[in-house]
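Predict structure. Chain length: 202.
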Amino acid sequence: MNFETLVFYFLASILLFAGFRVVTARHPVHAALFLVLSFFSGAGLWLLLEAEFLAITLVLVYIGAVMVLFLFVVMMLNLNIEKMRQGFWDNLPLAGFVGILMAVEMTLVLTVAGRTVSSDPVRHAADYSNTKELGRLLYTDYVYPFELAAVILLVAIVAAIAIAITLRHRTGTKHQDPAWQVSVRREDRVRLVSMPAEKEGE
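Prediction complete.
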């Protein structure tokens, strides 16, 4: 067993532990921090596969931007953890079935891929750039799926912001109803009072 294999098993064990803690952590902030740890471990595995661009992208984009945003949102929303846990045991059978189904699918994918993909890695020249090759594939052969994924992510971000922030009702806070403000009439706001004029000296 060489050094690269030891590093792989070390990073893979950390990744599995962090992924398990993401699901089982009781506090959302702790789950987000374990997700950051799993991303770092995944970036190390990408480096072992000589995919430096993907590793740096995983660290800069997901850890440097997305996870920081998640942490700020989780801490600012002041989530009611007890309310979120309601109905956990009712949904556990369905969640277990979906998890087992995903495990079976991944097993089948790895089995089929192990039969069809050659185990000998392709050796490239010294001036080969995997970043350039990845960009060429994304913007030529897979440009439409790439743009579709970008649109789906944009819609998901807008929907998450709308649901988590703008549609969240808090007790004890004042808010305006634009529909009620537009439909109001002059008679509802202004009342003319007839008063007799006062005479001088009275």
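Summary: The mean pLDDT is 81.
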